[in-house]
Design brief:
This protein is 30% helix and 21% strand. It is α+β, with helices and mostly antiparallel strands and 135 residues long. A five-stranded antiparallel β-sheet has the order 1-5-4-3-2. Strand 4 and strand 5 form a beta hairpin. The chain is globular. The two termini are 25 Å apart.
Amino acid sequence: MKPSGEPVGVWLAGTGPESDVVISTRVRLARNLADVPFVGRASNTEQALVVETIRWALQDTGYLEQGCFLDSDEIDRNLGDYFVERHIVSPDFATAKIRRALYVSPDETISLMVNEEDHLRLQVLASGLDFAGAF
């Protein structure tokens, strides 16, 4: 995923219900893995374990073939700023110095931050007032 060549996310298209009033709808779910310390207390090894566990789960379910998975060393400042501006990641995620990763669907409607405040932060964006579609 590169900032210069990517299409606008469909959630920005202004085609959803009530899009003349509501720009977009966002649903976020946060989860933590059992028996792994919270991100702020986890060691580098434990943070890497979370990233690799999520990478494996995305591979096993076929999501890796449908989107982009970026490890922390692939997210430089420019790409982090791009994702913040698109509301795909939080500013804290973009500037964190810990082991983290990001999954983004091709149309930017689904993103999964790994090792943000929680081990997993899943976000779905929809155009207009489409809560049911986002959920």
